[in-house]
Amino acid sequence: MDFYSGNYRKAELFIRKAGEENGTFSLMGKGQQVFVTEVVNDIFHKMTVELCENTEYQLIWTNSLISQMYLCGNEDVEETGIKYLIVNNEQPEKTEVFDTSWREQFHFTPYVNWSNDPNGLCWFHGKYHLYYQANPHEQKWDNIYWGHAVSKDLVHWNYLPYALEPQSEILESHDLVGGAFSGSAVVLPDGLRIFFTRDLEKRGKPETIRQSQATAFSKDGLVFSEEQEILPAYAVEGIDMNFRDPKVFRADGKWYMVLATNYFGKGSILLFSSENMLQWEFVRPLIQEDDPEIPSMECPDFFPLGEKSWVLLASVMGIRTRYGHIGSTFF
After folding, report:
1. Active-site residue 175, yes or no?
2. Candidate list 2, 76, 117, 190, residue with the active-site label
3. C-alpha–C-alpha distance, residues 172 and 69, integer Å
4. pTM for the full model?
């Protein structure tokens, strides 16, 4: 496959071998081989290749599968967005992808494959930044990444490189599943701090779920520092394996976090506090549900409405609406 790099300085792709034998991936530029590697993993891994600007390249891969590939690395990538390369017969132009009767025109959708919870929507450096749970490889839930996009009007979006990946042990084993689950973002004077849940479980065995809370920092919203665990699994006596979706906010000179869980047998939203966003103390449950059919809550939000009122939003697990749908929201 041939492509022109333009102003892009990197290519990122997700690749795995296609069979028992190892594969190869190589990049040719100006008639010479500029990059070659053996593809040895049978789980998709992200690979980054450095490019020269305004150069014609040829991609060659054997016995390998590529789920996505795009160009990035330019200084104005938020303005241009990444450029997807056509490796799996996707539509060649963004306008053709979106101008269809079967695709959302005003709601954000990923370029291809799976997405679910939006995370960390914020106004940062003159744009709305949206992070979202994504599986770049298939149209189903599986190992979860954080995708990333920016917009000036919340209607027209530019895709950016993926911000978070699943844990390394997940990417090395077919028996494990999980990754970077939901969270939030806080805009600071010197950058952006994100908070998110790390999920790790044995595939098909929900009783093995371990969920912990982590944070990472970025000066530009694109590249994040090495993450830090701030609340391990079962960090509070009385909680169960459901322990996720941190929403962080500031009030009365302190940082606060709400988290969804089951607390002493009741679906609950818990409140934590911190002075520095890194060390967190349990304060109390904000709300608990007595209904035994509600094992936990998800994706809480807690924010002021006017000067005297606060609103708590959460998704309730385990109950159905009168139409049979799961996942009602209460406030």
Report:
1. no
2. 117
3. 21
4. 0.92
